[in-house]
Amino acid sequence: MGGVDKVFAPLGGEPLLLHATRPFQQCPLVDQIVVVVSGEHYEKCQHLAGKGEWSKVTDVCLGGERRQDSVAAGMERLKNFDWVIIHDGARPLVTADLIERGLEAAKETGAAAAAVPVTDTIKVVGKDEIVRQTPPRQNLRAVQTPQVFRFDVIQIAHKQDARDVTDDASLVERLGHRVKLYMGSYDNIKVTTPDDLALAEILLKKREK
Question: What does DSSP say about strands 111-117 and 180-183: parallel, antiparallel, or unpaired?
Fold first, then answer.
């Protein structure tokens, strides 16, 4: 991001993180929000939490070294909940519809994740960059967040598996637990580069119109 912190990058005149949390704030099915941040952003988030925009935010806590460490830190702040929804703060175009459909999908197996069919052909390569396999595209999905779990399922997954993962659904899969994928949105992009931020701005303006 060229030195710009993505979660506080300006999007539509507001910090990107506000866009990522607003649908959860507005969703009637969500009772509590915990925001997990790195140390340098703790005070900024505490300031946001003091405003009416974040009335459902009960905690702002520091994350850990890895993604799953941060998620585990956030879950420790939750009490007496049956379901937990995990979302990347760098996905500012999530919608209440995605959240609600995730909760509905998770009822089937206790675990669900938003995903979209891939539109490119995917190649599996070795360290030498030689193609080893071309999996059928119709069987491939690009996984997003929100990811929704029955609280006991995701809690056990985090306690029993210490290996690095890129998403929480992977931890649950390693338990042998079934994860239901439901249709995400191609607009639900993750902001990783300046080009992603520019695209998010265009998509946001399109949505507002």
Answer: parallel
